[in-house]
Amino acid sequence: MKYRDRTEIISVMLRSASRVNGACKTRIMHEAFLSLSQLKQYFPLLLRNGLLECDEVMKTYKITIKGSHLLELSVSLNQMIDTRRTNRQENTVKIQV
Fold this sequence. Notes:
The chain is mainly alpha-helical and 97 residues long. The protein contains 4 helices and 2 strands. A two-stranded antiparallel sheet has the order 1-2. A hairpin with a 4-residue loop joins strand 1 (52-55) and strand 2. Helix 1 packs across helix 2 (25-31) and helix 1 packs across helix 4 (65-96). The protein is elongated.
């Protein structure tokens, strides 16, 4: 598996919590391919910064509006980066031919 940075891990966690009914910690952990120690590191960060909210009754976590906004920005940024990589690779291929 390739190295993932914090923003990618957080994006996957937010995407997992964006389900209609939210997601439990276990589901988020599995979908983000995190260990329990990593989960314990990231969850307080997301809760403290208002990106996730906890439903005490259902024991699930839901993405907040702030979290949704961050996830949208992350997706847009990744699309721009991928577009630049694709364009750069196409230019390299044309020069080599």
